[in-house]
Write a structure and sequence with these properties.
mainly beta, about 10% helix, about 450 residues
Length: about 450
């Protein structure tokens, strides 16, 4: 039996990597993913650094591992259904000619986002754990002939994070924890190119919007980060948690594939717009969370938190091409840091049944003047409910639901080559989660 357990722990990252392969949607502000625990979903991911409900504390605060008894494995999945709709308000070429095309349809992409966690005890004071999760992800995809096709068609980022962790109980009141994050990132960006306009500028007999081409850039990378946590219990009813997740830099390396229409084929003979290797630097933010968990009565508990995210690291989106005839593309982002706040509660109806609810305000890092079609982000308010049912001492089932009310966001993305995309976005998100926990 012990041999089988050891084999399971070694296989765990491989199993989770396979499960996480298709995770593609971001629902926290920017392109961060909060979806790491279904119990947390029921509280709108409020108080995560202090709640310590299960092994997902590896992500939220590794010091919380000291509060878990024995060993356990949990697996969860979230079905995320975003709606991203653009309303055109006078988009045009640089000379004022209206841009042709529709409004892009629903650019939100539904997805299933899984995660997997496990923990076990080395001793009464030393605990170990491992998590495999998706901390950052993004997918927007418009109809290929939409009015903003020169700015964006598909934008996709997927990360897979392997997070082993260790925690130590220094006293009955104080615990510390630390983890390592081995992270894989894969990105794909695509958009149309107005070769009619480019050809006209180069002396070819073409007209703007008459000879569209296409470019798709893909790249990937592995990188390292870390996470740290402190958990303090002044008494048996109160927990205070402080958790930090480090910034990570990915040097994405891949290739750019160009599709050039026949009318503009002469441009490739000059060396530009030919398939080439490409690279881009992706700066992912660090975060700092302060949480409190307060048991008000034997059945009722409150939780709250404040989370700072260092989004100002994401100042530009730049793609460099190995082909010297192809100029780098640079899109300013100039994001700002954000502070997310939330409040939640748990109510234990029966010994086997706990109900949850939560509300959170999650401001966008995107400034109005820098909103882009690739990431048309806006402030969002979370309303969430959930429940946990424990049919036996070793098994529990969690469910959760959240609706995100996303503020309308205006956009005026201007470029001499791509024209001016003017309009507003109307977005919303629904999230459903299911999770199983097995203790042994």
């Amino acid at each position: 039996m012990q041999s089988l357990k050891l084999q399971f722990w070694f296989l765990l990252p491989t199993i989770a990597l396979t499960v996480c392969h298709h995770s593609q949607v971001a629902q926290a502000s920017g392109f961060a993913l909060s979806e790491q625990s279904v119990k947390g979903l029921g509280n709108a991911f409020t108080g995560g650094a202090a709640v310590v409900d299960d092994a997902s504390t590896i992500f939220f605060n590794p010091a919380g591992l000291t509060e878990l008894e024995g060993s356990s494995v949990q697996g969860g999945a979230f079905y995320i259904a975003p709606t991203v709709r653009f309303k055109n308000q006078g988009s045009s070429l640089f000379n004022g000619t209206p841009l042709s095309g529709g409004e892009g349809g629903d650019a939100g992409v539904n997805a299933v986002v899984p995660n997997l966690y496990a923990n076990w005890s080395v001793s009464d004071r030393i605990k170990l754990g491992i998590g495999v999760n998706v901390p950052f992800a993004l997918t927007t995809e418009y109809e290929s002939n939409w009015v903003g096709r020169y700015q964006a068609v598909k934008s996709q980022l997927t990360t897979i994070n392997i997070n082993p962790a260790i925690a130590a109980k220094l006293s009955e009141q104080l615990s510390i924890g630390a983890g390592v994050n081995l992270q894989y990132a894969n990105a794909e960006l695509s958009n149309a190119i107005d070769f009619g306009l480019i050809g006209l500028s180069a002396g070819l007999p073409t007209q703007p919007q008459s000879a569209d081409g296409f470019v798709k850039v893909e790249g990937n990378d592995w990188s390292l980060g870390y996470n740290l946590g402190i958990l303090y219990k002044p008494d048996n009813n109160t927990r205070l948690g402080l958790a930090y997740r480090s910034a990570i830099i990915h040097q994405l390396r891949g290739e750019a594939d160009f599709t050039v229409p026949t009318a503009a084929a002469a441009l490739t003979q000059r060396g530009a717009f030919t398939d080439t290797d490409a690279e881009a630097e992706l700066k992912l933010p660090d975060t700092l969370s302060l949480s409190i968990y307060q048991k008000v009565s034997p059945k009722f508990a409150l939780m709250g938190d404040v989370t700072w995210t260092n989004w100002s690291r994401f100042d530009k989106l730049q793609i460099d091409f190995d082909n010297p005839a192809q100029s780098s593309t640079v899109q300013p982002q100039n994001w700002r840091d954000t502070i997310r706040v939330g409040l939640g509660f748990n109510y234990q109806v029966l010994e086997q049944l706990t109900l949850r609810a939560g509300i959170a305000y999650d401001p966008t890092p995107v400034k109005d003047e820098y909103r882009t079609a690739r990431i048309p982000d806006s402030d969002r308010t979370w309303l969430a409910v959930g429940a946990s049912y424990r049919p036996s001492d070793s098994l529990s089932i969690d469910v959760g639901y959240a609706h995100l009310f996303v503020d309308d966001g205006s956009i005026e993305q201007v470029s001499r080559a791509e024209g001016s995309l003017r309009g507003k976005y109307e977005n919303q998100v629904d999230i459903v989660g299911v999770q199983l926990n097995w203790s042994f």
